[in-house]
Amino acid sequence: xxxxxxxxxxxxxxxxxxxxxxxxxxxxxxxxxxxxxxxxxxxxxxxxxxxxxxxxxxxxxxxxxxxxxxxxxxxxxxxxxxxxxxxxxxxxxxxxxxxxxxxxxxxxxxxxxxxxxxxxxxxxxxxxxxxxxxxxxxxxxxxxxxxxxxxxxxxxxxxxxxxxxxxxxxxxxxxxxxxxxxxxxxxxxxxxxxxxxxxxxxxxxxxxxxxxxxxxxxxxxxxxxxxxxxxxxxxxxxxxxxxxxxxxxxxxxxxxxxxxxxxxxxxxxxxxxxx
Amino acid sequence: xxxxxxxxxxxxxxxxxxxxxxxxxxxxxxxxxxxxxxxxxxxxxxxxxxxxxxxxxxxxxxxxxxxxxxxxxxxxxxxxxxxxxxxxxxxxxxxxxxxxxxxxxxxxxxxxxxxxxxxxxxxxxxxxxxxxxxxxxxxxxxxxxxxxxxxxxxxxxxxxxxxxxxxxxxxx
Lengths: 275, 172
Fold this sequence. Notes:
The structure holds two protein chains of two kinds. Helices cover 38% and strands 18% of the residues of chain A. Chain A is an alpha+beta fold. By secondary structure, chain B is of the alpha/beta class. Chain B folds into two domains: 1-118; 120-172, no CATH class. Chain B is 44% helix and 13% strand. In chain B, strands 2-3-4-5 form a four-stranded mixed β-sheet. In chain B, strand 4 (85-90), helix 3 and strand 5 form a beta-alpha-beta unit. The longest helix of chain B is centred in the first third of the chain and has 19 residues, at 44-62. Chain B is globular and about 50 Å long. At the A-B interface, helix 6, helix 7, helix 8 and strand 8 of A face strand 1, strand 2, strand 3 and helix 4 of B.
């Protein structure tokens, strides 16, 4: 029996590990492709995209308790390395138990807002005692998600000094496994747990990667990057100034299809476009 | 985000996939197409184009399994519903007031079938407003034009958004 259980858990580790690899690789590939096609300078994305999309290397730690993913922790400290290291660990204790003592049932989502585009709703400092057991694990974590069971979804950030910061934001409710009425921004990796481990497949990874990257590309064209939008505006004005604007406008629309239909995440342009 | 390929024999100019699982087919036609005859009735060229996009919608609504490939690839969340397949026809420019009035009447008829007709002028205005809005230029001009000294501050983006949607019907 123990051998079978051990085999199942080990198989879970493999599935999760290869899934995360697919996800991260798809993110990087898509980010690079989109930025090249949209002619967006690298410097824009460094400040506006989450670090795990821009750093060359990444270290990902995933915790599995029994047969459920308990936490997806992404550490992006490997700026100088280009390797992707994934560590899937089977833990013996349910992480949400740490939160069960905390009387914050009214606080559902937390988010570490380390990026300029994230909207802070409120910041809560939590004493370290709730995190004693996992403090070592959480050291230097830039993004982490801790959830499940008690209805608390949290992204936690440990400050240099060791304080634990829980920062409240709203979430894209569609991506949440819970019922949440507020909807503002998304949390990386939170969708992860809405899938049973057995259903984590390459196409799921690609889908989420595509959505994730599109989301940030969309943000790039919103408030945080006026220079990018001004450059596009300049380009657009040049196109429509010309009497023969049709073909260049068609090409423009292929590059920026969401001007036709906001919310577009994928577009196919016919090679015979404009004929 | 551009993936150039020719996936269907009918070759619509663009196919847009939205996160909510809907698909928008875009047909770009020349801006110089005359929509109406001198007598004010619909031109045969326009009629032909309307028929073409109607055929697209009907075809893809009947053959929704064509989109399964994109579901498998993780691009679409689900196969689009019948109403989730729509088409935008972008055509013509420089319409007169009378022509625009007539076009609006035609639009309301085709809207029910999932067909939207947009002129190049409208598209250019829409893009221009969107770009001006997101680059902050509209905010500045709006402030300049509409604010009197006693109404000095606009710091709620909701006000501006309301203004933009009022002007351009934009969904940003």
